[in-house]
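ARCHIVE CARD
CATEGORY: sequence design from structure
SOURCE FIELD: tokenized fold
FIELD CONTENT:
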């Protein structure tokens, strides 16, 4: 495992770099990748982001200025905020054995890079990218804006338990560059489309409680997405909803990606280790936020998840 200084020096030596982001890209992977790309360009390097088909209306503006042109042939490949090659988009899979440097903050990181720099204590990969860029030179406003997106979204605008004093210190340093953070906060944390509100209303009306109402299961079947004609932007970060229910410390969100293919997202308190639960089903993540995918009809998929939670939590009551 590389040190921070070694990771920075590797990047200083790279050129013609392609940066990879994960499927269903969130603010952390997009913001980290965009900032790193801007930082490499500031050093005079050629760097691009591999186009990601899963971008939403909220993340796309930070990604598109750095998207690679068709036919770009990289000399070096870097991944950001990707714990496993299973999370590579289809167009990234040809690079699965070509990642020269992987940068991540997930405890479940699988070490697929030729060299890796991982810091599980970081609230977001954006924190790590900030440190790397600061080691390479001045962090400009162009780098700081996507980094603020990365850090703020992965800690729920500094409300989640992964937020640390250092998270706030990084955010403060980013704000000192003069970025328009108010727009980011409004877009990501204080605005919901009417379709999004319809999704949340349906999810809450159908919520199922388990474990003396300490666990909640919320579902987003394809039929619901079709009924409200929701887009990926409308459905972004729906997993945050269950954790807002009073008394719930294990929120399970089931989203149907394809018929009988369910993406599980867990948001938990200290009683339930989400990474250990999702690892039993082939996934991973963080202690308080993790995910996995299960191919099965709804009731069977839900049963598998509840049984996995029961394996990890001794006092869990089905």
């Amino acid at each position: 495992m590389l040190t921070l200084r070694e990771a920075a020096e590797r990047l200083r030596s790279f050129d013609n770099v392609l940066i990879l982001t994960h499927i269903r890209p969130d603010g952390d992977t997009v913001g980290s990748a965009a900032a790193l790309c801007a930082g490499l360009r500031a050093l005079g390097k050629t760097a691009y982001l591999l186009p990601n088909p899963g971008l939403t209306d909220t993340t796309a503006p930070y990604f598109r200025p750095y998207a690679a042109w068709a036919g770009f042939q990289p000399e070096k490949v870097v991944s950001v905020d990707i714990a496993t090659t299973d999370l590579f988009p289809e167009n990234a899979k040809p690079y699965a054995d070509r990642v020269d440097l992987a940068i991540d903050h997930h405890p479940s990181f699988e070490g697929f890079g030729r060299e890796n720099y991982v810091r599980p204590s970081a609230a977001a990969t954006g924190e790590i990218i900030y440190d790397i860029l600061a080691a390479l030179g001045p962090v400009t406003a162009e780098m700081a804006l996507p980094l603020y997106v990365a850090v703020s979204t992965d800690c729920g605008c500094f409300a989640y338990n992964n937020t640390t004093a250092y998270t706030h210190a990084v955010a403060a340093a980013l704000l000192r560059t003069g970025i328009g953070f108010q727009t980011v906060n409004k877009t990501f944390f204080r605005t919901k489309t009417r379709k999004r509100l319809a999704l949340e209303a349906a999810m809450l009306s159908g919520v199922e409680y388990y474990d003396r109402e300490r666990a909640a299961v919320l579902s987003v079947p394809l039929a619901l997405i079709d009924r409200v004609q929701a887009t990926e932007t409308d459905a972004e970060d729906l997993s945050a909803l269950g954790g807002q229910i009073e008394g719930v410390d294990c929120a399970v969100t089931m989203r149907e990606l394809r018929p009988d293919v369910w993406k599980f997202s867990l948001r938990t308190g200290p009683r339930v280790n989400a990474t250990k639960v999702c690892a039993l089903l082939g996934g991973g993540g963080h202690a308080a936020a993790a995910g996995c995918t299960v191919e099965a009809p709804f009731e069977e998929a839900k049963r598998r998840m509840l049984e996995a939670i029961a394996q990890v939590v001794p006092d869990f009551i089905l």
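CARD ANNOTATION: The chain has a mean pLDDT of 97. The two ends are 41 Å apart (CA to CA).
SHELF: design records, drawer C
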